[in-house]
């Protein structure tokens, strides 16, 4: 019986000590040490950046003060850039950044210019779908003939009317000699203007008759 009381006593003491544990944790209980791990600091340049998709890669030349040769690629998203307005990076732009290692590789967490300054960014801007679709059709400015804009966007004063096919001001496209329309033959095939002229002269039909 004495042994039982001793066990009870030991158990009671143990139960009283548990709430007084200063750590409040069981030995060996993981507490997420990864969150306390200090972030790595990298230095490098922008390798490339897609302004339309909003992401790219940095070429890291130094990690925590240690030089890297060859440089290492670090993923960068526009949301991590320290700058105002439209966020992007210019190819070759020097940057400083914090980064972490993930299952996909190295990812930047905050990207700034040298010394914590704001990023410079790219001068490029993504084009709208309607604008890209319009340019892909090969449309040109009817005022100056340029391919990069329409007549309503032309910065030049109104130009003299000219042929849209050969750009000559001596005639319109309907009378352009360089774009002579082909006349259909009676059989539905296309014939050249020279052959059409021969038909009118009767030379093309001057064939020997049978029996002659």
From TrEMBL:
Biological process terms in GO annotation: pre-miRNA processing
Q: Where is the composition biased (Acidic residues)?
A: 18-37
Coiled coil regions in record: none
Q: So what family is this one in?
A: Belongs to the lin-28 family.
Q: Which InterPro entries match?
A: CSD, CSP_DNA-bd, Lin-28_RNA-binding, Lin-28A-like_Znf-CCHC_2, NA-bd_OB-fold, Znf_CCHC, Znf_CCHC_sf
Q: What is the lineage of its organism?
A: Eukaryota, Metazoa, Chordata, Craniata, Vertebrata
Q: Which Pfam families match?
A: CSD, Lin-28A-like_zf-CCHC_2, zf-CCHC
Could you tell me what this protein is called?
Lin-28 homolog A transcript variant X1
Which is a Gene Ontology cellular component entry for this protein?
cytoplasm
